[in-house]
Amino acid sequence: MAFKRAAVLAVGILLPFANTLTIEGMLAAPRRSTANVNPSGKWALFTSTSYNWDTSKSSTTWQLLDVASGKTKEAPFGSEVSEVVWIGKTDTSILYINGTNDKTAGGVTLYTADVGAKTFSPTLVASLEAPFQGLKAVRTTSGDINFVVNSLARWDDGSAYNPELATAPSTSGAIYDANYIRHWDTYIASERYAVFSGKLASGKQGYSLNGELKNLLFGIKATVTRLESPVQPFGDQGDYDLSPDGQTVAFLTKAPELSKANHTASYIYLVPHDSSKAAVSVNGPGSSAPQHAKGASASPRWSPDGKKLAYLQQDGISYESDRFKLYVAAVQGINSKVSAVAADWDSSPSSLQWTPNGKNLWVASELHASTRLFVVPHNAKSSFVPKNFTGPDTNLAGFAILPNERALVSASASWTSRIFYTQSPGSSKKVLFTANEVDPELKGLKPDSVSNFWVENDDGDLIQTFVFYPTDFDPKKKYPLAFVIFNCIHKALTVLCHGGPQSTQADGWSTRWNLRLWAEQGFVVTTVQFTGSTSYGQEFTDKIQSNWGGTPYTDLIKVFEHLKHNVPYVDTDRAIAAGASYGCYMTNWIQGHDFGREFKALVCHNGKVNQVAAYATDELWFIEHDANGTVWNDRENYELWDPLAHAHNFQTPEFIVHSDGDYRVSISEGIQTFNILQRLGVPSRFLHFPDETHWVTNRHNSLLWHRGIFNWIRYWVGLDEELIQEGVVHQ
Ligand SMILES: *[C@@H]1O[C@H](CO)[C@@H](O)[C@H](O)[C@H]1NC(C)=O
Ligand SMILES: *[C@@H]1O[C@H](CO)[C@@H](O)[C@H](O)[C@H]1NC(C)=O
Ligand SMILES: *[C@@H]1O[C@H](CO)[C@@H](O)[C@H](O)[C@H]1NC(C)=O
Ligand SMILES: *[C@@H]1O[C@H](CO)[C@@H](O)[C@H](O)[C@H]1NC(C)=O
Question: What is the pLDDT of residues 246-294, one digit of tens each?
Fold first, then answer.
């Protein structure tokens, strides 16, 4: 097959409808943060970032949401403000980080202000020498403000590290004596993130910084792995918390006595805010926590009275997709005693908050591929089964508990990039704001463009599949099928991107795999939550171990057959399959097997083709768990599900994307896949980004990604006449 040389297809030709979601529109439309609520629950702040294609610039504004009316207005400050904490003398007082510092290049400043005042008059209260972030603050009984922030810190003296002031070393070489040379998108350097504490003393002239910031991790003994908080690359201020009296800090760090490439373990520590005593661990070896709790910890949160600390921990010491269990520690000073809460609950929470009366925990956890809120009494016994009080129709991204014990939820769905609503157990949802009613780019998006169904698999498990329809969908017509095999996506709440396949991809908004936008290309789009997915019970998740190309593959075939025989508007003779990360691995597995012949074309983003080359990755615990062993002792486990072993069967046209900065799945995987397909004479295209990672995030790069992939899938099902030549390097 020869690619036709033709004029570049304009996006307008690809999308002939008015008022439908376009690639440019989706990428430029406002991206809104979660809502940050003030003490009385009257106001919430959030950021909104839009993109301008003409100037190639994004711009961020801060918005104030009136929680009672749902009305929004622009806050009196702009994008130089990077973070805001509601704190101070009035209900509308704030303390914020200004991302600039006139005195120190690369530093930041702290300001106080009152957004409720007639004129906005901020006061500079501290000049900080490094790019501190992750601000949390508490007003103490004396009226001072105790705060914590984080920054990279030097290992030798514990001081905050300012890359802009650092002198460049004379060599670019770096020597490693232990693995974890690089991680996700970063080569490991000597500096580590640390939590710093500081005090703003209250005086007649307002607040002023009292003394230096103190590195709360500095000096803690680490026999194998250096302490680091937040845990990189997905940790943030959710990895630490300041007690309500401002006197004690809880933070989490990877286990200091274990090698970090093959262990997921992390522990929570308590340390006085003034760093007068060395930190003491709440869980981990020698603590009062149950022996079986050995894995990753998450979400330490103080109770309103400061006497308890709730947190999450996995059992498995090297299994990143194990179930997170709930714990509450009774705290005295920096010592604590741990109890399990609702220990048998077969759900894996990602975040939690205490209710204002200190009785219950409101816990965010995934159920059937959408993150919901559950109520759990803080002392619930093992057999307690928590109930969700938010529904499946939106996917929760964050929440706050208002003083009237309603949750203010920030969520998304395939039809809205952001929805804010309030809800409490037993009451109905009150929508305050939804982006699809405001943003012109999202105009016409409605909840009825998504549905789901269940099919029983060979193990007797029910497999859920989500379906996305294009605008003006007509069930009497026939649509080509886009069979999207999901990947590792940012988990709604904690932005944890676990390796996939242990994840879900369902009814949420994504700027990278926006399935509603895929449908808009003229397809009915499905995503199957195959065996190994989270949110259907831990046993179902665990079943993918040593089974990568096994049950997940037969689940996909089951659903495909179901669509073929039962869904008249889906034309399975014109189907394509696409996936990223594990989804790309599965696409390559399908390519090497009979199921591959059901598809007109395939799309593979940053995934593996060569399982035996697994040790080029960063987190060894992941592959050693999923393949149940090492490649030298248990090589057959790796070979069993190796797409490369079936390369002689590759024959379906495939589009491959891979980027140099992906240290999770090395670039060599994408290049191998492409070289094999070319060598076999299978129509194939390779899209390479030198400056992207496991994800493509730059908007112009993303535009090329979308145009290239959408044209590829449309061409092979007969919707486009030609393959575009935009960006093609001809040899
Ligand atoms: C941020 O800091 C700069 C100086 O570094 C100052 O000019 C600007 O007014 C500040 N903005 C706000 C909103 O504090
Ligand atoms: C983890 O790796 C270290 C070497 O980095 C090794 O000594 C240790 O035995 C490994 N532990 C496990 C549980 O695989
Ligand atoms: C809880 O989840 C179930 C299952 O998805 C759903 O049917 C129910 O409506 C949810 N409960 C509430 C109160 O939204
Ligand atoms: C392999 O599986 C066995 C049985 O489930 C388990 O006991 C063992 O810990 C596993 N090994 C690894 C490296 O996951």
Answer: 999 999 999 999 999 999 999 999 999 999 999 999 999 999 999 999 9
Flag whether 593 is in a domain: yes
| Residue 233: cis peptide before it, omega within 30 degrees of 0 | yes
Q: Determine which residue's CA is closest to atom 10 belonging to ligand 2.
A: 262
Q: Taking the CB of residue 573, how many other CB atoms lie within 10 A of it?
A: 12
Rounded to the nearest whole angstrom, what is the distance from the C-alpha of residue 240 to the centroid of ligand 2? 28
By alpha-carbon position, which residue is closest to atom 14 of ligand 2? 262
Pocket flag, ligand 4, residue 335 (CB < 6 Å):
no
Whole-number Å distance, alpha carbon 62 to ligand 2 midpoint, is 47
- Interval 551-602: pLDDT, tens: 999 999 999 999 999 999 999 999 999 999 999 999 999 999 999 999 999 9
Secondary structure tally for the chain: helices H, strands E: 10, 39
Site to probe by mutation for ligand 3, drawn from 388, 451, 454 as the one with most ligand atoms within 8 Å of Cβ, is: 388
- Hey, what long-range contacts does 11-15 have (CB within 8 A, 24 or more apart)? 11/707, 14/521, 14/707, 14/710, 14/711, 14/714, 14/720, 15/520, 15/521
Q: Which ligand is nearest to the CA of 625?
A: 4
Residue nearest to atom 2 of ligand 4 (CA): 628
**CA-based nearest residue to 574, from 718, 720, 723, 472:** 718
Average pLDDT for residues 466-479, to the nearest whole number?
97
Atom index in ligand 1 nearest the CA of residue 81 equals 13
Q: How far is the CA of 367 from the centre of ligand 3 (A)?
A: 9
Would the pLDDT of 9 be above 70? no
Mean pLDDT over 336-360 rounds to 98
The CATH number that applies at residue 646 is 3.40.50.1820
Contact 639, 612 (CB under 8 A): yes
- Atom 3, ligand 2: which residue's CA is nearest? 259
Q: What is the pLDDT of residue 726?
A: 84
Q: Where does ligand 2 bind, in terms of residues with CB under 6 Å?
A: 259, 262
607-617, pLDDT tens digit by residue? 999 999 999 99
- Residue bearing the CA closest to ligand 4, atom 8: 628
Q: Ligand 3 center to residue 26 CA distance, Å?
A: 30
Interatomic CA distance for residues 649 and 654, integer angstroms: 13
Number of Cβ within 10 Å of residue 301's Cβ equals 18
For ligand 2, atom 4, name the residue with the nearest CA. 259
Structural domain count, the chain: 1
Is the pLDDT confidence value at 495 over 70? no
Identify the domain containing residue 503 by its residue range.
442-716
* 100 CB within 6 A, ligand 1: yes
Whether 584 is covered by a domain: the verdict is yes
Testing ligand 1's pocket by substitution, the residue of 60, 96, 100 carrying the most ligand atoms inside 8 A of its CB is: 100
What is the tens place of the pLDDT at every residue in 248-260? 999 999 999 999 9
Closest CA to 325 of 302, 299, 353, 306: 299
pLDDT greater than 80 at residue 47: yes
**Cβ-based burial of 203 (10 A; exposed 0-12, middle 13-18, buried ≥19):** exposed
For residue 17, pLDDT beyond 50:
no
Centre of ligand 1 to C-alpha 84, Å, is: 14
For residue range 683-715, list pLDDT tens digits in order. 999 999 999 999 999 999 999 999 999 999 999
Query: For residue 488, is pLDDT > 80?
Result: no
Pocket of ligand 3 (CB under 6 A): 368, 388-392
Give me ligand 2 centre to Cα 261, in Å.
Answer: 8
**Which pTM does this prediction carry?**
0.95
**pLDDT value at position 680?**
98
In a domain, 284, yes or no: no
Predicted confidence (pLDDT) at residue 490 exceeds the cutoff of 50: no
Residue 617 lies in a domain: yes
